[in-house]
Amino acid sequence: MGRTYFVEEAVGQYLSDLSTKLKPFVTGLLIGQCSPQRDYVIRAVRTPPKEEQKEENIPSKLASIDEEWITTHASQVSRMLPGGLVVIGVFIIATPELSKDSQNALRKLIFSVEKSLTKRRLWKPAEEEVSDRAALQICSATKKVVCRTYDVQDPRSSAKPADWKYQSALSASWLALDCTVNVNIHIPLLATSPNHDLEKNTKNGLNRWSKQIEDSVFLINGQIKDDDTELLEGQKKLRGNTQSSTQFSDVKVLIQLSQGSSHRSTATVQVCSGSINLKGAVKCRAYIHNNKPKVKEAIQALKRDIINTLSDRCEILFEDLIINEGPHKKNFEREYHVLPQRLFVPVAGSSVMLSDYKFGDEADAEIQERFVEMLDQSVQAEDIHIAEEINT
């Protein structure tokens, strides 16, 4: 039995529009959520054209697919996804002449996208986690849809057939978990660390902190719930309402200060030449499907959002510093940098919101431009919800 993908109807319309506009082929990403029973696809996003391709200079052979461009796009898009949403696959819409090569191209893309996303993550997938990713092939002439999956944990994995089923208002009443995490991370810079590699040291410090988040206790609406109970157990369900409506759960994160007496504590003395401090309150959010989700699925999605949102911001800050100050800045006096703030933007017909980050001096127009380029979505300035105070 292959996997079944339940797909938002708007995705079908989007893919159909792309197939009439772009010839001879177009690639893109599928965004959604994996769960043990079934998978959900709530968005499809075409690969943005490169500057030089905007002039009718579109390559005509699948061999000319720019793998690096597509994986970079996937990395950028994954930063804009709240907890629970992932790049769940890739698609190609191609003319009949190119169809026979499409599957090989999709297979290569799925593995390179996954490799690029895994490299950035500070968390490890759970053992029982779904590792199948979708490869969707659509013929632009006949509109025939073929969906297959590959197991990204197995480099020798072969294609398995999968069902692709459209459904209306698929994510109109998904559940949201919200929490604010107070961050105060102290990262020592060792005197032996070459050239003050701030980015590497920050990543190491975040790695240690992410393990604390993994071991934290999560209270959902003030209660500790058993992993295998249903998230909505004991709560009234919203009935008969297909308008986009969100049921929010308020979550508190209790980070354990010290290990139990069974762990031996060992102290290390190291010579340091400075330190990095990350301080502030970060707003975290995860969405979960409404088909009897388990508590452990919801908590896992929220844990990943907490870890991702901090590491993504640090990455964005370092990229910004390199662009504005150059990679060879050697002045390591006391400095304060403000990490970008988190914002959320609604998706039409869905209770799920997408996310992004803005620096204080960034205008709304820049954010709107980024949503069009990365997610092919136009956003009204009044729909941009800033979720946080400024953090350093």
Q: Secondary-structure blueprint of this entry?
A:
Elements: E1 4-8, H1 9-21, E2 25-34, E3 39-46, H2 67-79, E4 86-94, H3 96-120, E5 132-139, E6 145-151, E7 160-161, E8 163-167, E9 175-190, H4 198-214, E10 217-220, E11 247-254, E12 272-288, H5 295-325, E13 341-346, E14 353-358, H6 364-375, E15 385-386
Parallel strand pairs: 1-3, 1-8, 4-5, 9-11
Antiparallel strand pairs: 2-3, 2-4, 5-6, 6-7, 9-12, 10-11, 13-14, 13-15
Helix pairs in contact: 2-3, 4-5
Task: Decide which structural class fits the backbone.
Answer: alpha/beta
Q: Tell me the domain tally.
A: 2
Q: Percent of residues in helical segments? A: 25-40%
Number of helix segments? 6
Give the overall shape, derived from the CA principal axes.
globular
Contiguous runs where pLDDT drops below 50 for at least 5 residues = 238-244
> How is the largest sheet built, in terms of strand order?
7-6-5-4-2-3-1-8
Q: Give the mean pLDDT.
A: 86
Query: What oligomeric assembly is this protein in?
Result: single chain
Strand content: 25-35%
Distance from first to last alpha carbon: 50 Å
Protein name: Protein odr-4 homolog
Pfam families: ODR4-like
Organism: Cepphus grylle (Black guillemot)
Keywords: Membrane, Transmembrane, Transmembrane helix
